[in-house]
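Posting here for the record, re: zinc ion.
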Amino acid sequence: MKTLILVDIQYDFLPGGALAVPQGDAVVPVANVLARAADLVIATQDFHPPDHKSFAANHDGRDIGEVVDLDGLSQILWPVHCVQGTRGAELVDELERERIAKVFPKGTDSSIDSYSGFFDNGHRKATGLGDYLKQQGAGQLWVCGLATDYCVKFTVLDALELGFETTLVVDGCRGVNLSAGDVDAAVAAMREKGAHVAQSSALASGVLA
Ligand code: VGL
Ligand code: ZN
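Prediction output follows.
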């Protein structure tokens, strides 16, 4: 069963948003083409409370981009983004919402960040996505969305770890590139762990199962 995971396609990650990913809006039409070709579509949603500890604003004297220790985990400090109840946290309206079977929120615990759609950054709690996909019989995953070097990367790495055959749809992703080369390094790390890397056209036309 071809299963598509849409990672964090939310207003705050689009141009003009609080944590804008360059060309983030370019993933939306790709996501829709894939959604029409997939048998099951699910979405993840970065969904933080206002006091979330990944926000620089919640650490006295700290700036965006600094790295702090959060409960034993190294945490990059981000601008305030994807706050529950705000427009920025919403999935983009142009996504084919009627094809999305279920949305998995993440990053809801203010004390820990969650880049992956499966687990928090400490692998302490699961979101339920892994069990849901197994119940649904999802064998083969296609992953696209935002951002390649954070939430897409860790979602793909966890999917592989859980035993799913996983394909990164490169033209359906865009990255932050906080440091030059971050996106390329992220793609290499996913490949190294066993991810397939494909273009949406090859998947949607059925050239690659
Ligand atoms: C993300 C940074 C902070 C992402 C989420 O969706 O890639 N990045 N929160
Ligand atoms: Zn976040």
